[in-house]
Design brief:
mainly alpha, 2 domains, globular
Length: 165
């Protein structure tokens, strides 16, 4: 999560990036606390890029899948208000359409883990359709691999968490 050289500096996105790095370094509690603080600062009606990003990353830091699902739902709800123009003020290459496969994949996985196979299949189908538009790069491969992994686990009736790829 880095800003492009031509985009304006966005302190909230910088804070999100720092919290994400803390979480990836293993300090989930501090990362969750930082993102929760940012969520409270931005508010439920605040900037859509901020809300979508905070909710997306907070979902991954939850201990309970029901809490993760609620944050995933918030991320998808926020993206409805997000425009390409706003996303590109942060990074010139961002497009809202590029966010959607990941958001739907996360929802599919959370619904699978709470035992709601119908909703899981719905979001998995949407993620798969939208993933066709992703580039053949690391991000695209990550999302397509996640879609396959969730599909396999869903087909097996598993509620187990995803394994790192």
């Amino acid at each position: 999560m880095t800003q492009s050289g031509t985009a304006e500096v966005d302190e909230v996105m910088t804070g999100i990036g720092a919290a994400v790095e803390r979480g990836r370094a293993g300090d989930r509690a501090q990362a969750r606390e930082a993102l929760t603080s940012l969520w409270e600062r931005v508010g439920s009606g605040g900037d859509a890029l901020h809300r979508c990003s905070i909710a997306h990353y907070l979902a991954d830091l939850q201990d309970a899948v029901a809490d993760e699902l609620r944050w995933d739902q918030r991320a998808l709800a926020a993206v409805v208000d997000l425009s390409d123009e706003r996303a590109q003020r942060f990074h010139e290459d961002l497009r809202v359409r590029g966010f959607l496969p990941s958001l739907h994949l996360n929802l599919a996985d959370a619904y699978r883990r709470v035992g709601d196979g119908d909703r899981a299949r719905h979001h998995l189908g949407v993620a798969g359709e939208l993933a066709d538009g992703l580039p053949d790069d690391g991000y695209g491969s990550l999302i397509r691999g996640g879609i396959q992994q969730v599909a396999d686990l869903l087909g097996a009736g598993s509620r187990a968490p995803l394994t790192a790829q």
